[in-house]
Amino acid sequence: MxxxxxxNRCTACGNGEGFDKVAYSDDIMLCKPxxxxxxxxxxxxxxxxxxxxxxxxxxxxxxxxMEDVSELRxxxxxxxxxxxxxxxxxxxxxxxxxxxxxxxxxxxLNKHGFGSQAKKSNLLLxxxxxxxxxxxxxxxxxxxxxxxxxxDATPLTEAGYIGDSVEDMLAELIQxxxxxxxxxxxxxxxxxxxxxxxxxxGDSANLNRDPSGDGVQSAxxxxxxxxxxxxxxxxxxxxQAAKTQTINTSNILxxxxxxxxxxxxxxxxxxxxxKRIGFVADETPETRVKENAGMKHVNAKHIVQxxxxxxxxxxxxxxVHLEPLTxxxxxxxxxxxxxxxxxxxxxxxxxxxxxxxxxxxxxEAVAHHAFEQKVGARGLDGTMNKVLKEFSFDxxxxxxxxxxxxxxxxxxxxSDSDSPEL
Length: 422
What we know:
Elements: H1 4-7, E1 21-24, E2 29-31, H2 32-69, H3 75-85, H4 90-111, E3 123-126, H5 133-144, E4 148-152, H6 166-176, H7 181-187, E5 189-193, H8 214-225, E6 228-232, E7 244-248, E8 253-258, H9 263-271, H10 285-292, H11 300-306, H12 310-314, E9 318-321, H13 327-335, H14 341-350, E10 355-358, H15 360-371, H16 378-387, H17 389-394, E11 402-405, H18 407-414
Parallel strand pairs: 3-8, 3-9, 4-5, 5-8, 10-11
Antiparallel strand pairs: 1-2, 6-7
Helix pairs in contact: 2-4, 3-4, 3-5, 4-5, 13-15, 15-16, 15-18
């Protein structure tokens, strides 16, 4: 039998003076302070249990991330593979490999719920024409099995004008992914070549609209940053009544490239250097390469001065500089890579059962002639086509087993023209 005095006291703390009965039964009475203390105790236990569960979930998810990442080709491996296909540009290969590796890790982090903590870093490739900007992007995308759409910036215009709109690039990317929007959103790469052609046509605010320059830069801002964009379901132009689908560009990697011809004048003005002009200017290959090497000092400030919008340049946080091709690199491009220019011609000859070969002296002559065209590696194929014109025309009809391209063959083929057929 519980006494009345005990019933008037808190079962937990024993307080009986001024007791405010909050919870009670025949055997238990609790005061308000004890109720609050108990609630706080139970809440703390619940929070701790939730935290431990979240930590376990986070740890399990990160272990899956690390397992998936362990299967990726590391930047050093990517550079080694690129070396088999692309000659030179070691620094650019390193930066591009790191950027692609980081992009693949972001894809995996997104897959396991960590995406909001890892933002993408778009790339801007800068270098003279023919130095392999597009080839690098194509090759590394193929090596990593990432879907890529390559777009020339020249035909791009603002929506409402004749030409390709920026949304058309996304439709093309989706087609490259066989209509799989999820694949395009998570792993897609859009490579925009000749981006420097979008420079502003002038600084005056009173100029007419510039739908193929400054206007396209503005249209690309949201796409490069990340936005929901409507594109036609069946590809082609977006019409008012056409059925559309939405693609999010937040995780699509944008790579832009350009030669930025004339930006060296901005560098010269900044450094106080004057360009040599006239017939006394030294135009040897070595001097030309040395002058073009100044491009490696180009930064975001110079690109803005060149005519690109600051907001647009800011969307490309990683700037990759490509070196001008030297004579030695040009010679290597002819014969020393899996995609060497001569390998293709040799394969075509082999289809006619002809063993085609080339001497070192001939390689030197072809490289020198192509170098003088000032169009980089693109000049090599045109020069070789010129050299092999008669052979390609006559050999299928003649019974020959082999043909050697010598220095005299090259000089004879090129003697009637000052430039290769490009």
